[in-house]
Design goal:
By secondary structure, the protein is an all-alpha fold. 72% of the residues lie in helices and 0% in strands. The chain contains 13 helices and no strands.
Amino acid sequence: MTGEETDGTRSRILRAALDLFTEHGYQHTSLRQIAERLRLTKAAILYHFPSKAHLLTALSEPFLRDLEALLAKADALPAEQARWALLEDWVDTMLAHREPLGMLFHDLALVDRGSTYHRLMRVAMRANEIVAGPGAGRRERVRAVQAIAMCSDPVVFLMEVPAPVLRDDMLEGVRRLLLDDPPRATGRRRPGRPPALSPEQVRTARRMHLAGTHSADEIAASFGVSRATVYRHLDQSPNNETV
C-alpha cells in the first residue's frame, strides 16, 4: 500500500467514524460498524488506529490546533485587546468545527484522559486567564469562565440556528456579561445610560491613543464600545493629565 493510499484510507476511516459517532454516539459505535460502512475489515481499521479512542483523538486534533493558534495570537496582543480578539476567534473556531463539536467535547472528557484531554484543559485554562485579564479577582475570573462557556455551548445546543445569527448573538451576550452597558449588535443603544468605559479602561484607552499605536476605531473595537464613546473619554482628558 502506497503512502497516498494509506492517507486516503485513513481519511475515509475518520470521515466514517465522525459520521457514525454523530449519528449513534461514540459509546454506541463499534469499530466493526465503521469497517462495515467502508467495506473494510476490522483489522484494516486497527492497522491505522489501534483503538476507538485513537479515532477520537485524531478527530480532535484539527480543533485543538485551531484553539492553540488563537491562544498564540491573543498572547501577542495587549491585555484588553487580547480579550476581545480571543473571544471573537473562539466563537469562529467553535462554528468552524460545529459538526463534530458536541461529540468531541462530551466524549473526549469521558474517554481520553491522556495528552489530548490535557491539551484541551490547558487551552481552556489559558483562555480563561486572558479573558479575566492581569491581576483578576474572583469576580473577573468567574465572568471569564462564563464568557468562554457563552462562546461555546450555544454552538452545541442550538444546531438549528444559522451560524452568522448565532455568532452575533453569542458575541452580543458576552459583551453584555463583561461590559456594564455594551452596544447592541445592531448598533442601536438600549434606553438609559449610554455605553461607558470603566476608569481603568479609560486610562488604558488614553495610553493607547497617546502612544499612537491604535486608531480610535481600533480602541473602540478592543473595548466593545462605539467610536463616539472613545472620543468622549479622550476629549475629557485634561492636557496635563498623566495617563
